[in-house]
Write a structure and sequence with these properties.
The chain is mainly β and 386 residues long. Helices cover 7% and strands 29% of the residues. It has 3 helices and 24 strands. It has a 6-stranded antiparallel β-sheet, with no helix packed on it. Strands 1-6-2 form a 3-stranded mixed β-sheet, with no helix packed on it. It has a 3-stranded antiparallel β-sheet with strand order 3-8-13, with no helix packed on it.
Length: 386
């Protein structure tokens, strides 16, 4: 949220960076704003140019657990003939305000139509700031400004971006910086939480630093959240929602990746690169929501076996194995859409146990219908072909 003033800039809250646009004109030096950090975490700004920069009030709004913060503003009002906008040639941010850990770095990326991406990296200076030198950007360009704050092991701890068009009189970028949770800190973070219920699952910040090689570490941590008394009928422990996490591109196999994570309520977003989902969420007794299945996935055998998902994701045409995919999913209802042609009955056996709740199963051809009916005759009345 922004409130414009003409005289001074006031910063309210924490974990906030101030970025100001200055403007190149046809007949004078670029305007600039000098920013200093005052007592109590605020800022004051003085207009040191002559061409009409508006000072800004920034209202920094964060939620109770500090997961999201409005972080950065780029703004300019001007008069007269203006040919270019220019980010203040030297942008200085307070490292503590943006949550920069010791030994970490900040990556500022600016991309736009008809321009090469600008990627700038800065580390904490001795005075506790980070600084970037940014070139001019043409007025009218639609620009995305992204900020990626990393720790000493190159894991993202805060990230955010905003897209706007640099207008002739005023441009504003409200970058919502979201707190992230590095995988290296996940176990200690979860240790601080108390046991809860599936209905009050902890929505975790985006988990960063996940790779193909350390997926087993993530699974082990999540499996450790169940209590000793946890069963399919009565799962117990610390329930978590990972829907804010997007698994990174490059991961191709999620085979058994979350198997037996009994207190996982919502799954992370799957990367487009994944091909193997064999038993990925099998025995995730508390899972109620599945993410979209990317095109390119081939193996979904037992993918959601014994979960509590309430609706089935669309099965992409690339899938070749759906054996026991939804076996034991007794809460699943609505329609199931299968775009894949699966003609081998063994690859679709035990597909679904909730025939009384599922409204319809749409398959792409008669061969797939015949294969499914041969192993699950009770499903025949609800199977539809084009």
């Amino acid at each position: 949220m922004l409130i414009y003033r003409k005289t001074q800039s006031v910063l309210i809250g924490c974990l906030t960076a101030l970025l100001l646009l200055s403007c190149s004109g046809t007949g004078g030096a670029a305007d600039s704003v000098a920013t200093t950090y005052g007592a109590g975490g605020g800022t004051t700004s003085a207009n040191t140019g002559s061409g009409g920069i508006s000072a800004i009030d920034i209202l920094n709004r964060s939620n109770a657990d500090d997961m999201e913060t409005v972080v950065a503003i780029l703004s300019q009002t001007g008069g007269g003939s203006r040919v270019n906008y220019e980010l203040s040639r030297i942008v200085t941010l307070n490292a503590d305000d943006i949550g920069l850990p010791a030994g970490g770095k900040v990556i500022l990326t600016i991309s736009g139509e008809g321009m090469d991406d600008i990627e700038l990296t800065a580390e904490r200076d001795a005075d506790g700031t980070v600084s970037f030198e940014i070139p001019a950007i043409e007025t009218g360009t639609t620009v995305t400004v992204s900020m990626d704050v990393k720790n000493a092991t190159n894991e993202t701890v805060r990230i955010g971006s905003e897209t706007q068009s640099l207008l002739g009189e005023e441009s504003r970028f409200d970058i919502k910086l979201t707190r992230c949770l590095p995988l290296s800190e996940l176990e200690s973070y979860l240790a601080s939480l108390t046991e809860n219920t599936a209905g009050t699952a902890y929505k975790l910040p985006p988990i960063t630093g996940i790779t193909q090689d350390n997926l087993s570490t993530l699974k082990s941590i999540l499996q450790g959240l169940k209590s000793g008394s946890s069963t399919y009928d009565a799962p117990a422990g610390k329930f978590v929602d990972l829907s804010a996490t997007t698994l990174p591109e490059g991961i191709t196999s999620l085979r058994n990746a979350f198997f037996d994570c009994q207190t996982l309520v919502k799954a992370p977003v799957l990367p487009a690169s994944v091909t193997d989902l064999y038993r990925c969420f099998g025995d995730c007794y508390s899972l109620i929501e599945a993410q979209e299945i990317p095109d390119g996935v081939t193996d979904m055998q037992s993918c959601f076996n014994s979960t509590r998902i309430t609706s089935a994701p669309v099965i992409p045409s690339s899938v070749t194995n759906l054996r026991a995919c939804f076996q034991g999913c007794l809460n699943m209802s609505g329609d199931i859409v299968i775009k894949a042609s699966i003609t081998e009955s063994a690859n679709i056996q035990y597909f679904c146990d909730s025939a009384e709740l599922v409204s319809a199963i749409y398959v792409p051809d008669a061969a797939t219908k015949n294969a499914l009916v041969s192993v699950s005759p009770s499903l025949e009345p609800i199977i539809h072909t084009p």
